[in-house]
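Teaching note: in complex prediction, the entire set of molecules is handled at once rather than each chain in isolation. The prompt given to students was simply: 'Predict the structure of this complex.' The entities are:
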Amino acid sequence: MTPGSARGAGGAAALAWALPLGVLLATLAAGFALGLWASAWWALLGIGFVCVVLLAQEVESRLALRWRGPFQRGLALGFPLSLLLVWELLAGAGILNPRWFPPPSQIAVALWELTVTFDRFNRSSLIGRPWLVPEVAAEQGWAGVQALVRESHVWATLSRVLGGFLIGALPGVLIGMVMGLNRTVRMMLDATMSAIYVLPKIAIFPILMLVFPNPFGEGPKIAVVAISAFFLVAISTMAGVQGIDKVYLEAGRNFGASRWQMFRHVILPGALPIVFSGLRLALGTALIVIVAVEFVRADRGVGFLIYYYWQVLVTPRMYAALVVVMALGVGLTALLQWVERRVMPWRRN
Amino acid sequence: MSAKIVARSAEKRFQTRAGWMTALRDFDLEVAEGEFLCLVGPSGCGKSTFLRILAGLDHATGGEVRINAGPDPRQPLANVVFQEYAVFPWKTVLHNVAFGLEMRGVGRRERETIAGRWIDKVALTRFVDYYPAQLSGGMKQRVSIARALANDPQVLLMDEPLGALDAQTRAVLQEELLQLWEESRKTVLYVTHSIDEAVFLGDRVVVMTAHPGTVKTVIDVDLPRPRDLTVMATPEFAALTGAVWDALRDEVRRAMAEQA
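The expected output is the structure of the full assembly:
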């Protein structure tokens, strides 16, 4: 249905309202009355979703033009919020088992508890109890503050992701540039790189644990993140350099650019958009890899938290840790986008 | 006046998967100092190839192609206004126009003053700090023209620079280009496939044969200068475009037959 088509005949307009609303209410009623939720929840959800979409479109088509923008933003925010509300209600009513799917309110409480409490058993906390910093600094000095930072799960994950990402991405950009510019190097490395590229990097974690003197330390964890980032960044940088429109290279040559000037003024800025899409991919992958590594072999980190609260079956805290991983992902991506806007001002709009 | 550009039995052959392809053969041409010369021919006749050789982006495989250098060794030989919008998307209008000067090591203050002057001349003063993505096609091509002229080359090479523009923008830019040229009277080699454009802009129009490209005819355009678009309505203009078309028609047919 197109917006505005309902404005034609009165009967059709009424039907456009009544039909989805009626079907929605009938579906809900049937679901509860006949006890269909348990067996056919997927069908009920599907029908309900279609009806909600139709109703939302109907509402939008009746709004004045200047209200449509706010309405769409309202949908973007309101729909996930109402999903959370439905989850809350379903879990509260016992339709969703709160043991596996604890209601969002419980997860929020768990997140708050995780943030403010110190786990005596693991000697750890979520963000390192920053409110203790002035006190500890006065009593124990710098070493005390460092101990606080070390007990933090968020800091453990963040330092591994950022450290590994930087250690992997910088040489990745360099090697990728060389591969893009030099055909001989590309021929020599391309097949090897492509072969390693498809290997799930978590699979080489055991090797890294053998290589490093302390298999349980930070070394192998940071290394596995760095290796994951390196190949993604190198391959996309190479593609970015090769994808530069020939006409820009010719313009550079015609205006007498030296090798270095060519790199600085044409090749580097020309490849940057693809380099950054590689960096974004690498950052996402880094987060995946570090969570997986922390499942296996860590006593700090958000991945460890998820796994630990699964083992002791405190599901709200497990979900709270998942929320923290999501927040880390969103935050790191936003940071990268901020860098991207600074480095490539010409792509701002 | 002496010859600025000289081509003697120039030849260009490419190696393709199907074998050797001859783009230019027995190509003879002299362009006088300060002349505006237009090169027309069917597509694929090698007119852009000739321009690329002059620009130093390609080499002739036989014969001779050269630009006679002027007295100042620091003045660049030839700069190109490219077919597509080859202005750098990552540079502002100012930095695009100053590009050639920057590559030659001209200091920041000086190159930005020179670039600013050319930006004024192509009426982009308001857009100095804009990026190309924020400009229309016509404005981008003005940047490209200013970039070449700001570098003050001995020869200006233009490879169908207005080909991608709509008819009105194109007409406006043709007039602007003539005005700029009247001020400097640089040697210009202008490749186009528009007969009207060639006759309107050029002192001479060189018609090329279908490939391999050689010079078929040279038509002198004796329309008075300075010209504006009203000249296109005169019978003399019609006679000249008619003459160019007569020379070109068979070549275009041949080129089409070969491509089919």
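Point out the following to students. The first helix of chain B runs from residue 47 to 54. The mean pLDDT of chain B is 90.
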